[in-house]
Structure formats: C-alpha cells, structure tokens
Design a protein that fits this description.
alpha+beta, Protein Binding, DinI Protein, Chain A, three-stranded mixed beta sheet, two-stranded antiparallel ribbon, 1 helix
Length: 62
C-alpha cells in the first residue's frame, strides 16, 4: 500500500514539521501495515491519498 499526504504550501509550519509528521505517521502505519510506503510533501492543497495494493486481483482492505 502507498499513502501520500500533502500539506498546503501556504500554511506556515515550524522547521522540520513535515519530516516529523512523516516519521510519526510512518511509525503508526508500519505497526499495522508493515509493507506500507509513506510520502509527505508540500503541495497546492492539503490531502491524503491511499493507493491499495492488489492481492490476487482484489484490493486489500484498509
């Protein structure tokens, strides 16, 4: 599974906040989904996208 979180560029964040979010969120996701890949980046708007991995032709349950 791939998870992508985006943070709006116009929001002011403390230095290292995006990296800290990626580390903590990644730790929590890995506890339940060890094969999960997480990306946190700055973009035009806030968002969270989850791309499921297909197992045997069906989407995994998230």
């Amino acid at each position: 599974m791939k998870v992508e979180g985006t943070i709006a560029k116009e929001k002011t964040l403390p230095n290292g906040a995006a990296e800290a979010l990626q580390k903590e969120f990644g730790r929590r996701l890995a506890a339940r989904y060890p094969d999960c890949k997480l990306t946190v980046r700055r973009a035009g708007r806030d968002g969270l996208t989850v791309y499921p991995v297909l197992y045997g032709g069906t989407a995994c349950t998230i």
